[in-house]
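job 3f2a | input accepted
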Amino acid sequence: MAIHVIQSQRIEVLVNEMLKTIRQPTSNPLQVLQTQHFIVPSLAVEKWLTEKIAEQKGISANTEFHHRIRAFQWAAYQAVLDDKDRVRQANIPRIVMQWRVFYNLQPWIQHEQNPLPAEHALHSLIQRIYDSAEQLPQGLEKQLKKQNMLYWVADKVSRLFSNYMVYRGFCQKGCEGVCQCQSNWLAVWGQQKRLNLKQQIYTPQNFASEEEKQAALEIYAFTQAQAEELEQWQSWLWSHIFHADFEKMQEIDQQFWQALGDPENPNPCMNKLPKQLVIFTLLDLPPSQLWFIRRLAQYMDIFILHYNPSQEYWADMVDPKWKLNMDARIKSRFIREMESQNKAVSDDDITAYIKKYNGEFNADMRESHHPLLTRFGKQARDHFSLLAALSSGDEGEWYDLFPEEEPQHLLGKIQSDVLNLVEPAAQAYDLDPADESLQIHVCHSSLRQLEVLKDRLIAWLGQDDSRQASDILVLSPKLKEQESLIRSVFAAPPSERDLYQKGQQKSQQNQATLGHQLTQDSVYLPIQIAGISSLDIHNAWRAVVGRITLVQGRFSFEEFGDWLSLAATQQRYALNLNNIERMNELLANAGFKRGLDAEHLKRSLSADDQDYRFSLKFALDRLALGVAVPEHCVVQHTLSYADVQSSDFELIFKLIQIYQDFAQRRDWLIQHELGQAKTVEYWLKQLMQDLSEFQDAGVDVLASVFSLVQKHDRMLTLASYFDAQSGQDLRQLSLPLDYILQEISAQLETQLEQASPSGAITFSQIGAIRPLPYKLIVMLNLDNGVFPSRDQQLAFDLMQLLKPQLGDRSRIEDDQGAFLDSLLLAQDSVWLFYNGFDVSDGEVRDPSVVVQEFVQHLALIVKHPDGASDSRLNLNGVEIPAQLKSLYYLHSLQPFDQLRFAESREVRFKDQWYRVAKQMQQETTPREAWFGEYPLLPQDVVVLDSMQWIRDVCFPARAYLKAIGVENLQSDTAAMNHEPLILNGLEKYSVRDFLLQHGEQDAESLLQDTLPVGKTLNATFQTGLQEQQYLRDTLQQFADEATATTQQLWKMNPHLHIRIQVPEQPTKLWCSVVAASARPRKYAEVWLEYLFWVVYQNTEQQDLERIVVCKDAVIHFANINAQQAHEYLAQWFEFWKHAQQYPVLLPAALVLKMKDKKEFEIQWDEAQSDQVLNMESFVKHWHDGAWGGFIDESEKNHPDWAFIFQDSETEPLLIEAFKQYSHRLYQPIIENYESAKNLQKQGESA
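job 3f2a | predicted structure (1246 res):
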């Protein structure tokens, strides 16, 4: 029985040695049936090792993997000891620790002020919680803020104590009885004592100046004060809440060794443990766990297969930066001593002193040798240093298996130098310009990095048929943030996805047909994003919690529509996309804006505001009534919806069911506010019930979420059972549901420990998949400030303030170690990507400090062709060492940049970007019209709607966009999500128009889906009544009632027919009343309606009159015969054809703009009618508009004009349009209007 260490720099070698250990011959035929136990650092190594075992043995079976030594340790306790419940009780999950901290501290945050005296150990912690809510008024909001802060503190404390139990709860000296080690913090705190912090805080020495000394002492004093404050409350929490539990853990450990008995003659329970244990690679090695393994090796054979990047002894090697600082301090101290003695100091004196100092203090053992290894491999060095205690051979065999190969490229040179711990020699390596083992790619954005990466991967895979997608590992420090970009850039083409999804459902012929749809633009690379839960799971979880959380916000139409569109929602309620689209249409038309119902709206409205329209319940009441009464009428104070179809009945029923589900959960997140606190157990049961409801409907992806919630429930049940025996019952712990949802969501988000290799290109967080070999390893986003990551620094951590101990872990050192592992384990190539240019301004940005140090190392060892070691090149602003030029690839901002396709080193394909670049490279020629007139065959007849045509010619941007088949979609989410507080112009018009059409009877009730909410409702309605009466009175001056109209077909020519509006009965006077203002465009529209009527009547007399009564004016046209109307319309149709081919800047709203709504502004030169005398006024209006609050068709900032012209210059086009068309089209309108107005005045005076 022994502990054997086998170390190598090659993972493949360790695998072969591992296979030898599990194939050892045995005389027991049943030995092959025994389970082989492995300890691995992560799931990634487990899956990779399982695959390798299967490849070598033909099958991988009867194996059990434990993730890290601690997992095996507790499994061994459980196997050997009889009291299983006691073992389970002692192993406290972190989340239970968090709940217990919250449970114990909660009573102290219930008061208005901190109830603890200043001398109490917890005073500073509790005061911090009170300070976080200090700015809030007393009441519920302030209490919730304190509660949120306490839960955050409980989370951090639980993580702290979990670390302390591993790294600061071990007796390193083997003390008899009570441990006295200062490194064993938990034992000291358990004895109600305090740490000797002065011994554990770094004491500054060897100052270069008095100022430096003073600054260092101030930092020391601040660190000590901070450490004392943290230790004060942490020691109290530990001793009062967790010390007893930790003692139980230690008792379990003691009972375990007692149960095993004497190593020479172990007890029979030893048979419950495996005969052999294999530890395959280490990513962390706390001294306490190494001690456990060493002691366990007295009872079984343990094989530690250790990945060591160097075959030399490097446990005492130091960080080169630390060495430089130390040498500088020694030099500075010597110079100060000599100057104090008034002695001159020469360079030889300094060299001799440093040499003497190094000899006296054995400084040679603190050399760096290879800076990459000692700078980035600090944790690997600590692991080697801990394992080096086993190298004597007293406890087992030690094997060094370091096969060495002659380096074939620059990457191999680095790996060889690290292996042999060779000090870098300046300009010692001749870099082959064709060497592609190391590449540094400089881009502008994460998206551009992925676009470049995809092209490079396609080329790399195509260079050698033996290369496979599974040979590629892509690492990123911000994988979650890049997930959507990765899925977008590497998305499967639609036909490929169709083949994958439908699979066997289609015949081979159909599959072949789909396969032919793939073009050269859509090369598909299979990828797997490891350690990130799938988008399907996230969206399904959103569907579940949406019924709980949406009601706590505005519950807007848009939010509800998004929730309805989730695939899990559709499955739960048996809907499809067509159903969702129709549901949204029904709800929007029925008036749903925001709010679940009246009860929900009451929470956000004042007590005096009792207008609860525009909620989901309001819309559903209308729809439900519309099933029975499909008319626009009021039944028992409810306005019915008239447009319900029979096919909508089932959808309305499901909407009612959905409403009931939301209403049932409306108060779940605010039970604490309502004084109806529920326990954690209750909420977990409710969540499992909701998850089961979706799973029963076929949402299978929620199985993992259900398991997660179920796991929390089991942990709580177990912890509560044992706590109840000790007087505490976590079953009574009440937490807001929001905290539990946050906890589950966070665990779904952070699944890095579940990252594992795949058969495709694997994307992973840096450090999640290591130490595993790949042919090609890519590292993305190595930007300064992004890598190494500092996001996960733990608050309140004393381990960061005090001196580190051998075996401690650091997130920064983890990332640096992962970077080094990637360099040393890549078999063919390493590609480094970073954003070297700011995407917004193009400014040069530095890469990560890690990349900078790596480049400095390369610049040192690579030989410059001209022998100038310090020469540098400037490539588009990026400063690089001249000898490393072949390693750098600077990429363009856009994938269709023409220079990209001209660059010989760029990987490029004849894809869509190539065609764009080729098009841009062609000579610039006058742009042809986007619209060509379709040649009409003799039998072709075009039928136009006059109203549509009139709108097009009055607003030429609309005609142009329609002609080229483009619709400029504009978002109207504000109107969908907000109930009207005041009505806009269009809504006011609809009220006036309704009153004109239907009269005043029950009008207010019938308009409840339109009138604004709140106090403006009555005012708006009364205003509408007054305006409606004014319009009727004005109309009476010309006719008793408005002229009834009908639609007729006017045949302008054999190929063009137009549907026009004309009076229903023959008449000389056509009167209309509209509830809108007489805007400038309205004059042109009425004029064209009048022309169509005249030509349709085909009268030679000038006796037809057209009168339109508007809210603020009367539009009157007369004295036109059919021949004149034909001539005028011909001009307009010529203009229309031109406007379809070219954007013509001649909107009627601009040409006919008026002064004070009394007279038209435009003035033409009498001698040259195409010249506008006051053109400057129209140009100014075009650029600036009439006023800043409203943008209409007469301004260049109108969305349609802006969409057409983008940032192009428009003023010359505006002037040209006015010159060519304004007089021909609009002068007759103004002349006829003024003439008719004068006749009207004469008639009134007569």
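job 3f2a | The radius of gyration is 41 Å.
job 3f2a | closed
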